[in-house]
Each structure stands twice: as C-alpha cells, then as structure tokens.
Amino acid sequence: MQKRLLFDSPLLKVTISRLCQQLIEVHEDFSQSVIIGMQPRGIYLAQRVKAELENLVGTDIHLGYLDTTFHRDDFRRRDEPITPSQTKIPFLIENKNVILVDDVLFTGRTVRAALDAMNTFGRPAKVELLVLIDRLYSRHIPVEATYVGRKVNTIQSQKVLVELDEKQKEDHIWLITKKE
C-alpha cells in the first residue's frame, strides 16, 4: 500500500482560511446563511469552517449536522445495515443559503442524498457545496462543488483517508493506493 500526503496540519489550516475567504466574498453578512456538515466526517470540517468564519466576520453562524443514511440510493442494497449518525439541525433552512460541507466529493451520491434529506427542514434559497477534496473523474451523477480545497486525480481503486484530530494537533489527509 502506498500513501501520499495531500494535507498536513499547516496546509489544512491555510486551505480552510482560503475557503472561508471565498465564502466571505459571496455571503454578505451570513445572517441568511447556515452551515450544515454531512455526517460522519464532514462535521469536523464544518466545525472548523464555522469557527474560522465567526473569527473573521465577528457574527454567530448556525451550524447543523445532517445524516443521509436513510436517503441513500443504496440503503437497502447492502449486505449489512448501515449505522446511522445523528442529524442535528436546530433551525429551519427555509429561504436560507445553505453551505453544505463534506470532506471528500467522490461519486456525488451522498450529496444527492443530502439534498433529499434537507427537505425535511425547509426549502433553502440556495445550496452551495464546500469540500476539502474533490476526486475528479469519478462522478456517477452531475454534482459539482462550489468551494474546493484541492482537486485530486484518482482512480477507482484509490482511497482518500481523512484524519482530522478534533484537538487540532495533527491532521493528515492521505491518498492511498493499494498495490495490485
């Protein structure tokens, strides 16, 4: 197995800062914007984006967590049941600008499921997608991220491993290639 480092802690911090600057350019004051992290791993990135944005703009921004388990198109096709995560969105998203956050964009199917799951909480005015890694040439459905930390050319057999330390001591994001 080969591992190639895509992000370490300092580069990740710079990338999150850049993504937040891009968000600030588009969203005037964030009073009509909310951040929703996709379970399970997108929530850690969403928490960091929220903290950085609040530090930069000086206002509170709503943060929620969205689980897409029961909205997935492969939910009933798996041999073993998927363990769902918690959905925690303590606000309505009706007419809000939703910034949907996930760690890796791969086939696009999870994003499609998230769009379905969000309907429970209202109809947003706009939905934007922020991802740390965009795995190019792997979409099954036409989904594109609005904000991207890094675009990576990958093949089907490769995997992106995201290791975010909640204490923000050491972060690593790897591209893993299994040897044939």
UniProtKB/TrEMBL annotation:
It holds the Pfam family Pribosyltran. GO terms for molecular function: glycosyltransferase activity. Keywords: Glycosyltransferase, Transferase. The keyword Membrane does not apply. Residues 7-166 form the Phosphoribosyltransferase domain. NCBIfam families: PRK05205.1-5 (NF003549). This is Pyrimidine operon attenuation protein / uracil phosphoribosyltransferase. It comes from Ekhidna lutea. The lineage of its organism: Bacteria, Pseudomonadati, Bacteroidota, Cytophagia, Cytophagales.
